[in-house]
User: Which sequence fits this backbone?
C-alpha cells in the first residue's frame, strides 16, 4: 500500500471508531435521520472546505470564506427582494462576483507577494463589510424556487432525508477529488504546496495557478453561500462567523497538512463528518453547559488530532521495521 | 565558429545583485552537437549565467539568441517551451510529489482532461530505466536519497530538452557508475544534435565529456578553449587566475598509535532499518574515511554517531567513560561536529547572514544566555571568510544568496568555530572548486595534526585515499570492510565495495 | 418528559441568566432539559433542532439567534409532531410552525427608554449619544428603532453620535471615550445604550473623564442586569428597561396546558418591559437579581 | 552602536511613515485630534487613548512576534486573555490580595503557553491547529470560571492596572511599553533572538547545529501566553470585571495583523518587536480614527479592510522592488 494514503486511512478509522462509540451510547445515532442530517447540515461547510482544501494544499489559507458565504446570502436575498429576477440568474451573477473576488485576492497574493493569511484577512473584513453595507437586517427569502429546492429530497428508509443540498455537497466532493488528484491543475496545486520557488523552476505556471486556486475557493464559497441560503431561506450579514476556522479544522482533521503539498479532498469530507458528529454527540448528550460544550469540542478536536498522529507514527514505525527485517 | 553554428548565444550578458556583479558582459556560445563545460571558481557566476538563460533570473542587460533569433524567457516555462531543459544546482524537485509526478509534471498523459495514472507511472519507469534505476515511482520523492533525486532531476531535464540541456553540477552527489551512465546518455543526446552545457568542479569529468570549455572568473569571461588544447594545470590556472601548488602528499599516514586507548569507542551501535550494529574506534588525530555506494548507509552511520538519528542498541564511550548520544546537543556537548550532506535542507539557515550561520553552533553550545559578543562574531566570521576564501560581499549577506560552494565552506566554518574534538563531514567537498578543494584537504590534514579526529564521507575515492588513515566500507547498511594505512588504495576500496560480504570480512584489519 | 432547548450561546450575562432560569424552571416541573449551546451560530441551532427531532423529544424551546431562516427546520419538527416554543426573540416564519412565542417586544423596549428620556429632559436641549449593539443583530436594530420613534416628536432631543459597542463592557467604555473626545464632554446630555453592559463600561469612561454620570450625563439602558442597579444606587445610572430572563416559566406553563387538553396558547406571550429608575430601591432589586445566574 | 541605530531606523521606517500618514489623515478629518491636556496627574487626548487602548494588541503582538518568528502562530491568545482575566477577577474577589492574584493570573497564562508549546514542539502538531484547540476550549474554561456572567470586582489595586496612571501615562501604556522594551532587550542582548530566528528559518538545520529547538519553541509560546495574560488582566481591570465571553474576542487576528504590518514574515525568521509594536499602534490608530470619524458603524469593516489593504500594498516587497528599479532606471 502506498504510504501516502496513511493519513487518510487513519482519519477514516478514527471516524468509524468514533461513530461506533457514539452508537453504543445512543443507539438512535445510527438512524438514517442522523446520517441524512450529517450530510445536510454539513453541506455548506463541506462545499467551502473543498475550496479550502485546494488553498491549503497549495500552502495558502483563505480566511475570507465565512464572510463570503454571509455576503452571498445577503446578496441573493437583496436581489430577490428588490428585483424580479429569477434565482438562477442571480446565482450566476453571484458566483461570478465571488469567483472574481477570490481571483482578485489570488492576484494580490501573487503579484504583490503578500502572505495569503493577511490578504484574505482583509478580504474577510471586506466581504463582511459589504454584507453590512447591503443590509444589516436579516432578509427572508420567499420564492417558489426555494420552496421547490427545500422539498426536493429523497426520503431514505427510516425517514432520513438525503436533501438536494446534501447531494450537491457530495457532487462537489467528487468533482474536487477528480480535480485535485486526477488533473494537471491538481498536480500544480500540490506542486505549489511543495515549494513555490521549486515549482516555478519546474515550469509550473505559478501565477495562473495561484489565481485559479483562490478563484476556485471564491467560487465554492459563493456556492456554499447559495446552499446556506437554501438551508436558512434568508440572507443575514452576521451569519457564518468563524466558518473559515471550522473549514480549516475539517481540512486538517481530514489529513491535509497545513504547510501544504500533502493531503486529500476525500479526507476533508471525513473531517466535515467528524465535526458534525461531535456536534450531534453533544446535542444528544444535552447536559453540557455552554462552557463545557466549548471545552469538550476542544478536547475532542485534540483527541482526533493526537490519535491520528499516533496512528501514523505507529504505522510508520512498523513499516520501517518491516523494511529492515 | 560561424554564426550559423551557434545554437545558443549570449552577448554582453550582465546581472547585478545588491553588492555583487554576478555577471559582467559575458559572451557565451553553445553549438549544436557539443558538450560545453562552464567552469570557474565558487561564486564565479556559472549558476547565475544559466539562470539568466532559463528565465529564472531576469538579466539586467545583454542579448540571448537561440538559433540566431533573440529570445527573452520571462520565466522557466518559456525556456521549457523553447526546448531548454535544465538541472539546477540544488536538486529542484518537489519532495511531496511522487517520482512519476516529478518526472512528468506539466506533461502528464491525459484522457478527457483526466490524468492517466497508470500510463504516467509506466512512462516514468521507462524514463528511469535508461539510468539503470528501477524504483517505486509512486512513492514520494523524499523517500529517496539525494543521489536518486539527482538522477530523477536529470531524467526530467533530459526528457524536456528539445535543443539545449543544461546540467549544473549534476554529478556532485553521484557515484562513478551513475556518472558513467549519465555520460552515456549525454553522449547520445550530443550525437543527436543537442547542445549541452555542463558545469562541474570535477576536472576529470570535464576532460572526459566536454568538447569545449568556457571559463568565468568573478563574473567575467576569461576564455573559451577547445578541450584538446588544454591540460589540467592550464585549466586550473585559468579558473583561479593563479598557480595552484599541486599538493604532494607525504606518506605521513602513520603516526596514529592504535595501541593507545581510543578517544571514542562505538560498540555494537546500530539502528533498525538504518544501519546494522557496528564497532568503531576513533583515535586522536585520525581521519576515518567512509566509502560505499549510494544508499549503502554512510549517511546513516554519520547521523547515528552524531545522535541525529538515535541508536537503538549498543553503547558509546569517550575516553573510557560512557557517553549518552540521544540528540545532536549531546554530541555537540561532547565535542562533536557534523556537517550534513544535504546543505540546503539540513545545513544552511538561508535567510540569516553568513556571520550568524558561522557562529550558530558555537552560540548553541554556549547557550542562549551567553551571547557571543558582536565583536567576536565579526572576528570569527571575517577570519573564516579569509581562511576558507568564502566569496561574499560581506559577512552580513544572507547565506542563501551565496553560491553553492561558498555555502559549503561557510558550513565547514560553522563547525571549525566550535573547535571540535571529533568532526563528521558528510560530503564536505561537494560542489567546491579545485582551489578550495585543495584548501579543505590541507585543512583536514592540519586539523588532524593538531589532534582533532575526523570521519569523512565522500564519493570521491581519490580524496579518501589522499587523507584517510583508515577507510570503512559500507554496503547494504552493513560495515563490511576496513582498510588501514598502506592498504588504502582506490582499487582496494572499489574491490571491497564490490566484493560479497563473506570475503570482505576476512580482509578487515 | 424531555424538552430540548436550543440556546444561542453565552455571549452575555443576561443570556447566562436566561439559561440558568430555564434550567431552574425545568427542574421545578420535573422536566428533563436537553440543552444545546449554538455558540452564536444559526447553523448550529438548526443542527440542534434536527438532532432533537431525531432523538424524539417531546417539545423544543428555541431562542433564535436571528429571525429568518427557520421555515424548513420548523416544518420538520411539525411533521414529527413536536411543538416548538420560541423564547425572547421572534422568527418571521409562518405562525403555524410554532406553538407560541414568549418574549418582549424589542421595539417597545427602545420606546420605553426613549419615553423616559423625553419626560426627564422636558424642553431642555439634549444631545444624545447612542451605543448600539452588535451591528446587524435584531436587538440593536429594534432598540434603535423604538428609541428613535419615542424621541421623534421631541425636537429638542437629537442623537449626535451613534456607534456600535458590540454589547460589551470594554467596547462600551472605549467608544464612550471617543464620544467624549469627539463631542466634548459638556455638550453631551444623555447616553442611550442598547444594553446595560455597555452602559456600565461607558459610566466608567465618563467618570474617568472627570464628569458625573447620572447627572452631567444621563444614562439610560436596557436589560436590567444586576450591575446596573449598583450603578443606579450610586447615582451613576438613571434608568433601565427590564428584559426578564424568565421566559421559560410562561413557556412551560403554556406547554403543559397544551399537552393536557390541547389548549392553543396565544401566538405571542409578551413579557413586561418594566422601567426601573433610581426611585425603585435599586439595591433591593440588585439583591433579588444576584442569584439568577447573571 | 551607531550603525545599529541606523539599521533599526531603516528597518522601521516604513511602519513609522505609515503611522504618520494615518495620524495626519485623522488629524485632517478631525482637527481636535492632537489636543492633549493634563489633568488628574495624567495626560488626556486621543493620541493618549491610542497608546492606552492599543495596549492589549501591543502586548499580544510582542508574544505573537516571537511565535511567528519560529514559523508558528498563536490563535489562542484571545482565549488566554479571557482565562487570565477571569482568574484575576475571581481571585481578587476571593480575597487573595493583589500580588497573589497577579501571580496566579500570569501563571495561568504561562501554563496555557506551555500547553501550546508542548503540543507544537513535542507532539509536533501544526501550530495553527494546536492553538485552535485552546482557542475553542479556552473560552469555555474562562466561562467555567465566571459561570458565563461578568465577574465584577471593586479592588482599587487591581483596577489601577487598567485605569490608573504612572508618570503621566495611563497604566496600560506604561505596561506595554515596558514589557516591549524588556522583551526586546531580552531577545537582543542574549542570543535568544538569533536562535529563534534560526529555528524559524530552518528547524532541522538548527537542531543539527545544536540549537535546542524544542525548548525554544516552548519558551516562545510561554512568552506569548504571559503577554496574553497581562493583556487579559489589563482588559479586566479596565472595566473592573472579567467578561469571559467577550474579552479578547478576535484580538488574535489584530495581533497577527500588527505583526505583519510590522514587517515580520509569517514564514518565520527575521523579526522586530519594535516594528510590531508600531504595527499595533497603526491598527489602533485606524480603530480610533474610525470611532472619532463618526461614520455609521456598518462601514467600519469596509473602511478597515481598505486601509489594511492599502498599508499592505504600500509595504509589499514586490512594490518596494519595483520602486528601487524605477529609481535606478531614472
Ligand atoms: N539571489 C542572489 N542574491 C544575491 N546574490 C546572489 C544571488 N545568487 C547569486 N548571488 C551571488 O552571485 C555570485 C555568483 O553566484 P553563482 O551562484 O552564479 O556562482 P557559481 O559560479 O554557480 O558558484 P558555485 O560553483 O559555488 O555554484 C556570488 O557571489 C553570489 O553570492
Ligand atoms: N539505488 C537505490 N535503490 C533504491 N533505494 C535507494 C537506492 N539508493 C538509496 N536508496 C534509498 O535512499 C535512502 C537514503 O539513502 P542514504 O542517503 O542514507 O545513503 P548513503 O549511504 O548516505 O548514500 P549517499 O549519501 O551517497 O546518498 C535509503 O533509505 C535507501 O532506501
Ligand atoms: Mg553554482
Ligand atoms: Mg548520504
Assistant:
Amino acid at each position: 500500500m502506498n504510504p501516502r494514503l496513511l493519513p487518510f486511512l487513519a482519519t477514516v478509522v478514527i471516524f468509524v471508531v468514533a461513530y461506533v462509540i457514539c452508537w453504543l451510547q445512543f443507539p438512535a445515532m445510527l438512524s438514517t435521520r442522523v446520517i441524512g442530517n450529517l450530510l445536510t447540515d454539513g453541506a455548506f461547510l463541506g462545499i467551502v472546505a473543498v475550496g479550502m482544501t485546494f488553498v491549503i494544499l497549495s500552502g495558502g489559507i483563505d480566511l475570507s470564506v465565512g464572510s463570503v458565504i454571509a455576503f452571498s446570502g445577503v446578496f441573493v436575498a437583496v436581489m430577490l427582494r428588490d428585483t424580479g429576477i429569477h434565482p438562477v440568474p442571480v446565482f450566476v451573477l453571484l458566483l461570478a462576483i465571488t469567483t472574481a473576488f477570490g481571483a482578485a485576492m489570488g492576484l494580490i497574493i501573487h503579484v504583490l507577494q503578500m502572505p495569503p493569511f493577511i490578504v484574505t484577512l482583509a478580504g474577510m473584513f471586506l466581504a463582511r463589510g459589504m454584507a453590512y453595507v447591503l443590509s444589516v437586517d436579516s432578509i427572508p427569502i420567499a420564492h417558489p424556487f426555494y420552496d421547490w429546492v427545500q422539498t426536493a429530497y429523497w426520503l431514505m428508509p427510516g425517514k432520513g432525508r438525503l436533501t438536494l443540498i446534501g447531494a450537491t455537497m457530495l457532487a462537489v466532493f467528487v468533482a474536487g477529488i477528480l480535480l485535485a488528484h486526477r488533473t494537471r491543475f491538481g498536480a500544480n496545486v500540490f506542486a505549489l504546496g511543495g515549494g513555490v520557488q521549486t515549482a516555478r523552476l519546474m515550469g509550473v505556471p505559478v501565477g495562473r495557478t495561484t489565481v485559479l486556486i483562490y478563484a476556485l475557493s471564491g467560487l465554492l464559497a459563493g456556492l456554499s453561500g447559495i446552499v446556506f441560503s437554501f438551508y436558512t431561506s434568508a440572507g443575514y450579514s452576521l451569519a457564518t462567523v468563524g466558518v473559515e476556522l471550522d473549514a480549516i479544522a475539517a481540512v486538517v482533521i481530514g489529513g491535509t497538512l497545513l504547510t501544504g503539498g500533502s493531503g486529500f479532498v476525500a479526507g476533508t469530507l471525513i473531517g466535515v463528518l467528524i465535526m458534525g458528529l461531535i456536534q450531534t454527540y453533544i446535542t444528544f448528550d444535552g447536559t453540557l453547559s455552554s462552557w463545557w460544550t466549548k471545552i469538550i469540542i476542544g478536547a475532542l478536536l485534540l483527541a482526533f488530532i493526537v490519535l491520528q498522529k499516533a496512528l501514523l507514527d505507529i504505522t510508520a514505525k512498523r513499516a520501517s521495521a518491516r523494511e529492515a527485517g | 565558429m560561424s554564426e550559423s553554428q551557434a545554437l545558443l548565444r549570449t552577448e554582453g550578458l550582465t546581472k547585478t545583485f545588491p553588492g555583487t556583479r554576478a555577471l559582467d558582459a559575458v559572451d557565451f556560445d553553445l553549438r549544436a552537437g557539443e558538450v560545453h563545460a562552464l567552469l570557474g571558481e565558487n561564486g564565479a557566476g556559472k549558476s547565475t549565467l544559466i539562470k539568466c538563460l532559463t528565465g529564472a533570473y531576469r538579466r539586467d542587460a545583454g542579448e540571448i539568441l537561440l538559433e540566431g533569433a533573440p529570445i527573452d524567457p520571462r520565466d522557466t516555462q518559456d525556456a521549457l517551451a523553447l526546448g531548454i531543459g535544465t538541472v539546477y544546482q540544488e536538486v529542484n524537485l518537489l519532495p511531496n510529489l511522487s517520482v512519476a509526478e516529478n518526472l512528468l509534471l506539466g506533461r502528464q498523459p491525459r484522457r478527457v482532461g483526466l490524468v492517466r495514472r497508470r500510463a504516467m507511472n509506466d512512462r516514468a519507469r521507462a524514463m528511469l530505466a535508461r539510468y539503470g534505476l528501477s524504483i517505486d515511482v509512486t512513492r514520494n520523492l523524499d523517500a529517496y536519497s539525494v543521489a536518486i533525486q539527482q538522477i530523477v532531476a536529470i531524467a526530467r531535464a533530459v526528457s524536456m530538452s528539445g535543443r539545449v540541456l543544461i546540467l549544473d553540477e549534476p554529478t556532485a552527489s553521484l557515484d562513478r557508475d551513475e556518472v558513467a551512465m549519465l555520460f552515456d546518455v549525454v553522449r547520445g543526446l550530443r550525437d543527436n544534435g543537442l547542445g549541452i552545457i555542463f558545469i562541474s568542479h570535477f576536472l576529470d569529468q570535464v576532460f572526459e565529456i566536454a568538447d569545449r570549455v568556457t571559463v568565468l572568473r568573478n563574473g567575467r569571461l576569461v576564455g573559451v578553449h577547445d578541450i584538446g588544447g588544454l591540460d589540467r594545470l592550464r585549466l586550473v590556472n585559468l579558473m583561479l587566475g593563479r598557480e595552484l601548488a599541486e599538493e604532494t602528499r607525504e606518506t605521513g599516514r602513520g603516526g596514529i598509535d592504535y595501541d593507545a586507548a581510543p578517544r571514542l569507542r562505538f560498540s555494537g551501535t546500530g539502528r533498525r532499518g538504518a544501519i546494522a550494529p557496528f564497532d568503531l574506534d576513533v583515535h586522536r588525530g585520525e581521519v576515518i574515511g567512509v566509502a560505499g555506494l549510494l544508499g549503502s548507509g554512510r549517511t546513516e552511520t554519520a547521523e547515528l554517531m552524531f545522535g541525529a538519528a538515535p541508536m537503538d542498541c549498543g553503547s558509546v564511550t569517550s575516553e573510557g567513560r560512557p557517553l549518552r548520544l540521544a540528540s545532536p546537543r549531546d554530541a555537540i556537548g561532547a565535542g562533536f561536529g557534523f556537517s550534513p550532506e544535504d546543505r540546503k535542507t539540513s545545513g544552511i539557515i538561508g535567510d540569516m547572514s553568513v556571520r550568524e550561520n558561522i557562529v550558530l553552533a558555537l552560540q548553541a553550545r554556549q547557550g542562549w544566555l551567553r551571547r557571543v559578543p558582536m565583536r567576536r562574531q565579526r572576528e570569527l566570521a571575517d577570519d573564516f571568510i579569509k581562511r576558507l576564501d568564502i566569496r561574499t560581499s560581506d559577512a552580513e549577506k544572507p547565506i542563501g544568496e551565496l553560491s553553492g560552494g561558498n555555502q559549503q565552506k561557510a558550513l565547514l566554518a560553522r563547525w571549525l568555530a566550535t573547535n571540535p574534538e571529533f568532526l563528521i563531514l558528510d560530503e564536505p567537498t561537494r560542489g567546491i572548486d579545485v582551489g578550495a578543494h585543495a584548501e579543505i584537504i590541507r585543512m583536514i590534514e592540519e586539523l588532524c595534526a593538531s589532534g582533532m579526529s575526523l570521519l569523512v564521507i565522500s564519493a570521491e575515492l581519490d580524496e579518501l585515499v589522499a587523507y584517510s588513515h583508515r577507510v570503512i566500507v559500507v554496503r547494504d547498511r552493513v560495515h563490511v570492510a576496513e582498510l588501514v594505512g598502506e592498504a588504502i588504495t582506490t582499487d582496494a576500496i572499489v574491490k571491497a565495495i564490490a566484493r560479497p560480504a563473506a570475503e570482505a570480512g576476512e580482509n578487515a584489519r | 418528559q424531555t424538552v430540548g432547548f436550543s440556546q444561542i450561546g453565552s455571549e452575555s450575562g443576561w443570556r447566562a441568566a436566561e439559561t440558568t432560569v430555564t434550567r431552574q424552571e425545568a427542574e421545578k416541573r420535573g422536566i428533563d432539559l436537553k440543552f444545546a449551546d449554538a455558540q452564536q451560530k444559526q447553523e448550529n441551532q438548526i443542527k440542534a433542532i434536527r438532532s432533537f427531532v431525531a432523538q424524539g423529544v417531546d417539545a423544543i424551546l428555541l431562542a433564535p439567534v436571528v429571525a429568518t431562516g427557520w421555515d424548513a427546520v420548523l416544518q420538520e419538527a411539525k411533521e414529527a409532531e413536536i411543538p416548538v416554543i420560541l423564547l425572547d426573540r421572534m422568527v418571521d416564519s409562518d405562525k403555524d410552525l410554532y406553538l407560541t412565542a414568549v418574549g418582549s417586544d424589542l421595539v417597545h423596549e427602545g420606546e420605553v427608554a426613549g419615553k423616559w428620556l423625553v419626560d426627564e429632559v422636558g424642553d431642555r436641549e439634549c444631545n444624545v449619544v447612542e451605543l448600539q449593539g452588535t451591528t446587524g443583530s435584531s436587538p440593536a436594530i429594534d432598540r434603535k428603532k423604538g428609541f428613535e420613534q419615542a424621541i421623534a416628536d421631541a425636537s429638542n432631543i437629537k442623537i449626535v453620535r451613534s456607534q456600535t459597542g458590540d454589547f460589551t463592557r470594554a467596547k462600551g467604555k472605549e467608544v464612550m471615550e471617543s464620544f467624549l473626545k469627539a463631542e466634548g464632554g459638556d455638550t453631551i446630555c444623555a447616553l442611550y445604550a442598547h444594553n446595560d453592559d455597555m452602559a456600565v463600561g461607558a459610566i466608567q469612561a465618563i467618570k474617568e473623564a472627570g464628569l458625573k454620570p447620572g447627572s452631567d450625563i444621563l444614562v439610560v439602558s436596557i436589560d436590567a442586569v444586576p450591575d446596573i442597579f449598583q450603578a443606579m444606587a450610586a447615582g451613576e445610572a438613571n434608568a433601565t428597561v427590564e428584559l426578564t430572563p424568565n421566559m421559560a416559566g410562561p413557556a412551560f406553563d403554556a406547554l403543559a396546558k397544551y399537552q393536557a387538553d390541547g389548549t392553543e396558547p396565544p401566538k405571542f406571550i409578551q413579557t413586561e418591559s418594566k422601567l426601573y429608575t433610581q426611585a425603585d430601591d435599586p439595591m433591593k432589586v440588585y439583591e433579588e437579581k444576584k442569584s439568577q445566574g447573571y | 552602536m551607531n550603525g545599529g541605530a541606523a539599521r533599526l531606523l531603516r528597518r522601521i521606517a516604513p511602519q513609522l511613515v505609515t503611522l504618520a500618514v494615518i495620524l495626519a489623515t485623522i488629524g485632517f478629518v478631525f482637527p481636535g485630534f492632537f489636543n492633549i491636556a493634563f489633568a488628574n496627574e495624567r495626560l488626556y487626548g486621543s493620541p493618549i487613548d491610542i497608546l492606552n487602548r492599543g495596549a492589549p494588541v501591543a502586548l499580544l503582538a510582542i508574544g505573537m512576534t516571537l511565535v511567528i518568528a519560529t514559523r508558528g502562530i498563536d490563535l489562542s491568545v484571545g482565549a488566554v486573555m479571557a482565562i487570565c482575566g477571569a482568574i484575576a477577577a475571581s481571585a481578587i474577589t476571593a480575597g487573595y490580595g493583589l500580588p497573589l492574584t497577579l501571580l496566579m493570573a500570569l501563571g495561568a497564562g504561562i501554563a496555557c503557553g506551555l500547553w501550546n508549546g508542548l503540543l507544537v514542539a513535542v507532539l509536533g502538531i501544526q501550530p495553527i491547529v494546536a492553538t485552535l484547540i485552546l482557542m475553542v476550549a479556552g473560552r469555555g474554561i474562562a466561562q467555567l470560571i465566571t459561570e458565563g456572567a461578568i465577574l465584577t470586582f471593586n479592588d482599587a489595586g487591581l483596577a489601577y492596572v487598567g485605569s490608573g496612571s504612572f508618570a503621566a501615562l495611563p497604566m496600560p501604556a506604561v505596561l506595554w511599553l515596558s514589557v516591549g522594551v524588556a522583551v526586546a532587550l531580552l531577545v537582543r542582548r542574549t542570543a535568544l533572538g538569533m536562535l529563534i530566528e534560526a529555528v524559524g528559518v530552518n528547524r532541522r538545520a538548527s537542531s543539527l547545529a545544536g540549537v535546542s529547538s524544542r525548548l525554544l519553541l516552548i519558551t516562545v509560546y510561554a512568552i506569548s501566553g504571559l503577554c496574553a495574560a497581562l493583556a487579559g488582566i489589563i482588559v479586566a481591570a479596565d472595566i473592573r470585571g472579567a467578561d469571559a465571553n467577550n474579552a479578547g474576542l478576535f484580538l488574535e487576528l489584530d495581533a497577527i495583523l500588527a505583526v505583519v504590518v510590522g514587517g515580520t514574515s509569517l514564514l518565520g525568521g527575521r523579526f522586530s518587536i519594535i516594528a510590531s509594536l508600531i504595527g499595533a499602534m497603526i491598527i489602533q490608530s485606524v480603530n480610533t480614527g474610525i470611532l472619532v470619524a463618526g461614520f455609521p458603524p456598518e462601514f467600519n469593516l469596509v473602511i478597515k479592510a481598505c486601509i489594511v489593504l492599502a498599508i499592505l500594498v504600500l509595504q509589499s516587497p514586490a512594490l518596494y522592488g519595483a520602486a528601487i528599479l524605477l529609481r535606478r532606471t531614472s
The mean pLDDT of chain D is 90. The beta strands of chain D are 37-39, 42-44, 150-152, 165-166, 169-170, 241-243.
